[in-house]
Amino acid sequence: MNITEIINKKKHGSSLTDDEIYYVITNYISGEVTDYHMSALAMAIFFQGMDDKETATLTNVMAQSGDQLDLSEFGNLTVDKHSTGGVGDKTSLIVAPIVASLGAKVAKMSGRGLGHTGGTIDKLESIPGYNTSLDFESFLDTVRTTGIALVGSSKNLAPADKKLYALRDVTATVDSLPLIASSVMSKKIAAGAKNIVIDVKCGSGAFMKTADDAVKLAKTVVSIGKMCGRNISAMITDMDTPLGYAIGNSLEVFEAIDILKGKGPEDLKKICIKLSSEMLSLVFGGDWEERVIKSLDSGNALDTFYTWIKAQGGQLEKMCCNAEHHYEIVAQTDGFISSMNAELIGKAAMILGAGRTKVTDSIDHSAGIILKRKTGDFLSKGDVIAELITNKRNTLKHAEIAFNEAFQISDHYQSDKKLIYDIIR
Ligand code: URA
Fold first, then answer.
1. What is the pLDDT of residues 61-83, one digit of tens each?
2. For ligand 1, is residue 312 a contact (CB within 6 Å)?
């Protein structure tokens, strides 16, 4: 087999065989296939696509390139949830304790934020003492006792995806549907859960900017998951506007706790109820929405959250949200907020210190943005739209400029936008 012939074959739009995909990935890891070969192949895949069988094979080979978690002791009770990335998306912190309070097992690995999107591990690390790197035995033990363990992805989870993703990031090939689908699913398959819900985000703050593209990605991940023997569904949800009001790590933990206390923003609550019900119906069958609402209302989900965080060393009582500088963005005119670009708001939060531009950047857990108003709200001149929060005073001006570009005010507001577009099973 020869890598140049394989690149040429894909360049002309032919499907690659299982053997060819295996050859490419194993030799990419060993270094025989170089970054320049892989860049050319990724670009050929970007233009020519891959069919579901090729995408499933690529997923499997990348999943098998490193550790594969054995969660078999939990039988069919394990459930994972993954979001394709967004702004203000703290749903994992909420749905994990909800579904664990109702008998499912969440043994989950999550990532860090990059660019305008946040990551669950950064949010959890804003809780003093929370251990995101338990060894495997302690990880399993925490699932056994609390129903949840949530740690950072191990270095050796789908290493082929890590190497390929870093290359895609610098060769403008991230936004290829089969490459996104296989990247997401390789990590989910290696992470071992029997049941998986993928939250495919759609809109200005997401990889998939249109509902059509989001549906295509959702169908592809569901098809791959099934081919890999998992119970899977994909929910397509809005990421045109940030989710909830809080953007930034500790700010998002506080908002997640609000939802578990029966308070908090309606959009976030609604998505969490739907995601949890979907996760539970994959595990047990049937409709779970009423029981999910009951778990929230009774405080059971909140108790499970406290037990889980404590089990991983987290000391919520020591959490603070005391960044030094707070700055209010004020409406300059009357009118409706007709749009709020989630990507630009995520970038403004990043400038304040809440996110990173490179994987090696450090972040400020207390920095971020609290939105006071969202799309569709009416503003009178002088009303506060958002509060910018940071420890670095010199970031405020730059963040304000980014934030001001993110929203539009007009005389009228009419929208047929949905929060949840579809569920693909
Ligand atoms: N998230 C991933 O894990 N991989 C992608 O390619 C895009 C989003």
1. 999 999 999 999 999 999 999 99
2. no
